[in-house]
Amino acid sequence: MTAAQHGASALTVVVPVFDEQDVLPLFVQRLRPVLDALEVDYEVLVVDDGSTDATPVVLQRARHTWPQLRIVRLRANAGHQAAISAGLERARGELVVTIDADLQDPPELIADMVRLAREEALDVVYAVRDDRRTDTRFKRVTAHGYYDTMRRLGADHGPTQAGDYRLMSRATVEAVTALPEHHRVLRLVVPSLGFPSGVLTYRRDERAAGTSKYPLSRMVRLAVDSITGVSLAPLRLATWLGFVGALVALVLLVYALVGYAVGLTVPGWTSTFMVVTAVGGVQLLCLGILGEYVGRTYTMQLGRPTYYVAHDSLTGEEPRD
Ligand code: UDP
Ligand code: MG
Questions:
Q1: Which residue among 14, 18, 81 has the greatest number of ligand 1 atoms within 8 angstroms of its CB, and so is best to mutate?
Q2: Tens-digit pLDDT profile for residues 195-226
Q3: Is the torsion defined by CA of 188, 305, 171, 98 positive or negative?
Q4: In the chain, where are the structural domains located?
Q5: 204 lines ligand 1 (CB under 6 A)
Q6: For residue 199, what are the β-bridge partners?
């Protein structure tokens, strides 16, 4: 059943959560007064990204006293970006805000986002972190490298340091969800659509409870998805490496032939070893780069969804198989 059949609301707040049993009660406590004070018809769409802790229980409990809370449960962990996409595809609001559950993004800002969007007729309002002192040094350095790389690759990633805390109009949400891309990185996709946008700055707080759900492996995934999503530069790099390799091989070939001709053929173990390892390494790197793109083409060709919904508290949607 489509969102429209279930009636629209003025605002949807999409919250991806994965194993957030500790922080959710605090989050609900802080979010609710903000939304109630807006005096609009709203829904809070929590996407439970296959949590394995008590998150589902905590959410069900919260729903008893907060009818605007809607829970969409994914069957397995699909990842932060896919969870947000699941929320966007189901949101019924004219305006949609995406926010993390760990209170690093202060919910109070939602009121300002809504006001700014209305006053200036904006389709997108980015919340930009002007202060990341509460993030670890490692996180700040890698984030800086990330935005820098994206800029070099020519991606319009919107305001630097804008994460996934943002407001989007219905038109924006529809444009985003219409994209067939499987590995959508929203912070790159949304700015590329070119809707009128504004910026609000905020101070990033510390995580209120629990631990980060973004280990290094997920950060690498996001970086690879981002790069392959915006650029073919790595493929070109592979081509250039191939050129350079071929050139070096040519020089070595001449060297070897000349050596053979004048009878100097015995020494050379070290150089042979180095060339073999270097060429092997570069070849594997290039294969890996190719693999990333081919793999993406392949998964898109299969047409499988990036997440499976187990249950939607609004529609009672059940597993499809
Ligand atoms: N999250 C998710 N699925 C995942 C990983 C994270 O839905 O696979 C949620 C998480 O519960 C949180 C948000 O995404 O609400 C951001 O994650 P986190 O705060 O752990 O990331 P960090 O702030 O450390 O980058
Ligand atoms: Mg966080």
A1: 18
A2: 999 999 998 888 888 988 888 888 888 888 88
A3: negative
A4: 9-213+304-312, 233-302
A5: no
A6: 126
Cβ of residue 79 lying under 6 Å from some atom of ligand 1: yes
Topology adopted by domain 9-213+304-312: Spore Coat Polysaccharide Biosynthesis Protein SpsA; Chain A (3.90.550)
Could you tell me the two tokens for 52?
A: 């394995």
As for the ipTM of the complex, it is 0.97
Taken in order 250, 252, 257, 262, the sign of the CA dihedral is: positive
Is 293's C-beta closer than 6 angstroms to any atom of ligand 1? Answer: no
* Per-residue pLDDT tens over the stretch 131-170: 777 778 888 888 888 888 888 887 776 777 778 999 999 9
Q: CA 68, 28, 92, 175: dihedral to nearest 10 degrees?
A: 180
Share of the chain above pLDDT 70, in %: 95
Residues 6+ apart with CB under 8 A from 74: 47, 48, 49, 50, 82, 83, 86, 307, 308, 309, 310
Q: Which helix (H) or strand (E) holds 261?
A: helix 233-261
Query: What is the three-class DSSP state of 25?
Result: helix
